[in-house]
Amino acid sequence: MSKWNEDHLRFEADVYELEVYGKIPKDLHGVFFRVQPDHAFPPIFADTEIPLNGDGNVSSFYIKDGHVDFKCRYVRTPKLVAERAARRALFGRYRNKYTDDPRVRDIIKGTTANTHVVFHDNKLMALKEDTRPMELDPITLETIGYLDYHGTLRCPTHTAHPKADSATGELVAFGYEAAGDATPDICSFTVDKHGKLTEEVWFKAPWPCMIHDFWATDNWVVFPINGLKASLEQMKGGGDHFYWDENLDYQLLGVIPRRGATPDDARWFKTPQGCYSHTINAYEEDGQLVLDANVWTDLHFPFFPNTKGERFLTDPSKVRAPILRYRFDPKGSTEHMIHPEGVLVEGVNEFGRIDDRLLGKKYSRVWILKIDPTKPVHINDNGIEKDKPGFNVLSCYNFDTGKSQNYQHGDDSTFQEPIFVPKSEEASYEDGYILVVVNRYRERRNSLLLFEALDITKGPLAEIKLPFKLMDGLHGSWVDGKGIEVASQKKKAKF
Ligand code: V55
Ligand code: FE
Asked: Signal sequence span per UniProt (predicted)?
């Protein structure tokens, strides 16, 4: 028997009035949405199943007048609905339809809505990069159905990391493997504030690979092309969707204009070996593009095989993810390799978030998780005390001063992705709150911590305790209470 049922939450819950220690600012009103991949059924290929394939279980923390209510619901993807009806898993390996049960193969897509929750055009969307956005009711978390941006979306895939432009109200997005599994086709598009596509360009990357995130500035979009390549042959053989090309000694940045682009406008800049995953932010300065990201020094998903079929070769004690900054002319020569301007922060850095109002614009701060290996995390694993590496440090790095602030929540805690919450629409940039879910291993439950963004070292203003343990989640968003009210009024008017 696999440990599947111990490691998963699998329930849907409403918790009214979470315990609050400390003080939540009285005027803070809104909802923090986040999602965790949470297998609803024992996987068919249990021994080689990967966490990226868990069913999307979305949670909401509704904050108003100093009180917090919690809710979590599975997204009713066609996969979950079919598997619930069958009372067992029907879908096979991650993004490999050739391993699905013949009853569903080629009929239902085994996709999971498990990566991000984003609010645009008063609609809440659960996202998975291999398909379209799934709309959820922001109050009840009920699944409404797939969104096609009022019939304007042609691309069958949609990144889980679209970028909202606070100046124009647009959502800048793309899909990869856009012409089918393992195709190098990218569809880059823009959705306006009314939820309709206004820009769309299709072009081909030099090879098909996992393009999990990207950068968008006022005038450019940039796609990180890494060595985690997609292979139709491998899928047809019953294997994984991706393999790691360990022989590749460079990566690429694919640059294309954000507006009015044609396929020929795409340009590919060579960058040093590593593995791109999440970006932090990008902006334009003096005609140059400035791109920030934590870049892994090796494959960050060790469960994927390399070209020889070998897995788990990445040494977790050696792999790093420093924060790098690239600066180059998007119209300049692609002949020579572009090197990062510098390593801004050493070590393992992941899940960086900024004040989203500054996406694509010049900014100063990132709030990000770090692994400090000198401070192991004490966990109690079925009665056995042991140490575990993990994201034990919440950090804020200031790009202007080069200084960091760090915070650790006791010796038994790791963090999930932090998010930035503006104090009000008018509040100055980066002056807000940080909300972050913390895993508290001794208590075997989670808390939501609320910090003053500009000084995390003084500790949380409030610790909001859940009565149970969540799984490690991925990404989430803060939605202002006004947005939620508009969405719920629209719904009342509709039904
Ligand atoms: C990621 C997560 C995914 C996925 C591809 O963090 C990349 C990266 C949870 O699913 O399918
Ligand atoms: Fe992600």
From this structure: none
